[in-house]
Design brief:
Blueprint: E1 4-5, E2 17-24, E3 37-39, E4 44-45, H1 48-53, E5 65-70, H2 81-90, E6 104-108, E7 146-153, E8 156-161, H3 165-172, H4 183-191, E9 197-203, E10 207-211, E11 218-221, E12 229-235
């Protein structure tokens, strides 16, 4: 199963999503080791034909979809981080439809090809797989999805690989039921020359995503941003209904 992106009309996402190749970071400064997977930078606008390839089928589990959301934000001073942190703490982004879990925030400086850092080293890790739920290969698709909202003031991006971690593990021959997928599998897959492309989805202030970050290679990016931004994160219960059925007024599709 490749990435599944929920949308209505292609015009709703036209000009908002790019696609390109990936590579390993090699000796790029700021990365934890040369094996980290990063975008190559050869972005092209996602075509309507390519977008249709990522559209979910009727039987697709909501738990494996990427959905885009938005929410009206308070009026902030342009450089007021404390107010944004206060707003994130009080945020009920899904109006009580999904329980909040592990609300956290991250400040993203502009110009970062990828944003997630290893807290023990301060180095960036590139595209990766989250592992909070620690689901094995056989039930990996049942992990919780993550909600992220961009509280601004800058633009952010969601980077997401076009293959899921189970496809990657199958290609590597580690698709046993008891196997625990890991970011190292993604790095080995790319190192061995297997194909992987990356979507780059623009998130302006007040916009965000709900994505299966334990199932799809992903990261944030501020590569083209002119200023910093604050992202607020929380987790949702597994198998929650997708937002088109419960929160239509937050969707921008």
């Amino acid at each position: 199963m490749s990435v599944r992106l929920l949308f209505d009309r292609f015009d709703d996402i036209r000009g908002r999503i790019d696609i390109g190749d990936v590579r390993q970071a090699g000796d790029m400064p700021g990365y934890d080791d040369g094996a980290a997977v990063v975008p190559q930078g050869n972005w092209m606008a996602l075509s309507e034909e390519e977008a249709e390839r990522f559209r979910p089928a009727a039987a697709t589990s909501p738990n494996t979809m990427v959905e885009l959301v938005n929410q009206n934000l308070p009026v902030f001073a342009s450089d007021d981080l404390p107010d944004r942190l206060d707003a994130a703490t009080a945020l009920d982004p899904l109006a009580g439809h999904w329980p909040r879990r592990r609300l956290a925030c991250a400040v993203g400086p502009p110009g970062r090809l990828t944003s997630t850092e290893d807290s023990t080293t301060g180095h960036r890790i590139g595209l990766h797989i989250d592992n909070f739920d620690q689901q094995p290969y056989s039930t990996r698709q049942d992990s919780r999805r993550r909600l992220c909202l961009n509280l601004g003031p800058g633009t952010r991006y969601l980077l997401v690989g076009d293959l899921d971690i189970k496809e990657i593990c199958r290609a590597l021959g580690c698709d046993q039921d008891g196997y625990y997928p890991h970011t190292d599998d993604l790095r080995r897959y790319v190192a061995e020359g297997h194909p992987l492309r990356c979507l780059r989805i623009r998130l302006d202030p007040g916009e965000g995503y709900i994505a299966p970050t334990e199932f799809l290679p992903h990261d944030g990016s501020t590569s083209d941003a002119q200023t910093w931004s604050l992202a607020a994160f929380c987790w949702a219960e597994p198998n929650a209904p997708h937002l088109c059925t419960v929160l239509f007024d937050f969707l921008f599709f």
